[in-house]
Amino acid sequence: MTEFARLTGLSPASSAPRRYLWTDAFAVCNFLGLYEGTGGEEFKDLALKLVDQVHETLGRHRKDDSRTGWISGLDEEEDRLYPTKGGLRIGKQLQERGSSDPFNERLEWDRDGQYYHYLTKWMHALNRVSRVTGDLKYNTWAVELAKTAHARFVSASSYGGPKGMYWKMSIDLSFPLVPSMGQHDPLDGFVTYNELQATTAKDPKKSTGNDLRAEIFDIANICEGRSWATDDPLGIGGLLFDACRVAQLIVSGDLEQAGLLETLLESSLIGLNSFLKENSLKLPAEYRLAFRELGLSIGLQAVEKIRELIEQKSGLLRKKDSLHAVVKRLSRYAGLREIIDKFWFEEANREADSWIEHHDINWVMLATSLAPDGFLEL
Length: 378
Fold this sequence. Notes:
Blueprint: H1 2-7, H2 21-38, H3 41-58, H4 76-81, H5 105-108, E1 114-115, H6 116-133, H7 137-153, E2 154-155, E3 164-165, E4 168-169, E5 176-178, H8 185-200, H9 213-223, H10 233-251, H11 258-278, H12 290-312, H13 315-318, H14 321-331, H15 335-345, H16 353-356, H17 359-370, H18 373-376
Antiparallel strand pairs: 1-4, 2-3, 4-5
Helix pairs in contact: 2-3, 2-6, 2-17, 6-7, 6-8, 7-8, 8-9, 8-10, 10-11, 10-12, 11-14, 12-14, 12-15, 12-17
């Protein structure tokens, strides 16, 4: 993580840092975990510097854009007070596609814009900063980001049916770049909003503007009746991360959804069975994406946390025999984490183009897999 800080222009600070929202969300959590585990103030300082640098970089228009300033449209003084009100750019290499430009699926992966599932990861990171430091302004920024994202990404049905969500929006959130909905975006939003709301409730100075109950109700309706099962390793890891947060919120008395927890765990089990049938972990490194596999490794470690919560801390969870059963079945896959981590620890595998092309995100998520508490804990 120290090397990541150096290489990406965080410490020492660069005038042109290399910031990418997903990677940086995990990095903030990693630095916080290192601070909690060692007491080293330098790690807390790196987490706070990274938050500021992300807002300063991804909260502004790109340097190759004709537009300048903060993407929220606020002036300098206001935006430093409300750095997340305009959302945050992904940090992709290429400029976003214009509203009248033709869609190119291959190029779209490399174009900038805003992703909802990246924003929810950043909300989680900001909330972790509040929990670890006691400074609730970071939770306020996370809530403001949640309100902005919800208002712009949630789409009303033109036929009076249930609402949906856009997968990717323009940098200024004025139009959708990819109008289809990510499978887990509503779920990520529901869990993250509840996480933020639980922290907000502990603020003695909380304002009504920080209340997310309306957004929680809205996104819960979007989640209704949806299937969460996936055979994508990163998607399975995300389900287990969400399940871990749901379990912690139930234990703390901030959520009463043991049924949702069971559904997420069962969906993860279905996905794992399907993923293993593909036998992709037997492929050479050039045909694999480390960060996707490491997402699964991180999620598998969440299973152990959930098991501990069920057995030790919550009568509500302990009473559900079916939860015990599905966690026990998931625990049989724990060895996959060692297989994945060991493979990507091999220097020869990190020489593959598939690793080098995603160097930053791979290193940071490998670090998270080695020490996951900073990311998994609420």
